[in-house]
Amino acid sequence: MIEANAPLERWLNKLIENGSLPESSIPKSAITGVNNLIDLEYIQKMPVKNGIKFVLIDEDSLVNWMARIIKNIDSNQTHNRAYAASKFRTAKKSTKNYPKVEIRFLKNNTNVPSQFKELQDRIGSVNYYLTKEESWLTGKLVLVENIESFLNCDDYFPNCDIAVYYSGNISDSLINCLNDSKCTIVFFPDYDPVGMNNYCKIKDRLGDRVELFVPQNISELFESSSYRIIDKNKNREILASLNRRSLPDEVIPIIQLIQKHHGGAEQELVRKPD
Q: pTM for this one?
């Protein structure tokens, strides 16, 4: 149970107003409460160039928590969103949208933040709310659609630094964060309409900074192990939409293979390099 106190309340109000605060701003009596709110995933502790900062990642949940826990709020705080939540049980929607992703720092990366290294050594990867201000988000990043391939990225992409796992449709918030980073990106999807649509979506935003990974034996994969997807309405609609737009040159042969075989090829079928 988190015990609310006046220093914690004041610090949280400042966090709501500013979106992030440096570690040095936390009063000693608020440290336990802040750490508990990190465990609840309302706040995220993030390494930056000059130390540590704390970022608000779930404003709605935080202000609702404040409404439940904090009973005595001064009347002069009537414009504060936390006060409004406690008084009226409502809060302004957060304008921040941080995508939660799974990250692996690959063997090629010699610049892994210590807090991430400890977690990855223990459990194999790191669940993280990605923001636009990640100082470590540099080098070559591979975006991977399937978990098995993600966990084996060191074998597939020995020259990459970071692997990020996404599933299904890639989110605009993730693309926004990557657009603001200094990374170049390798895109490793399933070779089906959803995968190609995701690639076109990120390619439209990031341009030459993103490249599509296409295995040399892609035709063979479709010949030997393609799965039927054209029968599904969603895939038919996406494929029709792709055919109506101007496509990157590297996508056209994949679309032709999808149409020829009435199916797609999953990335798990791609052989690891010898």
A: 0.67
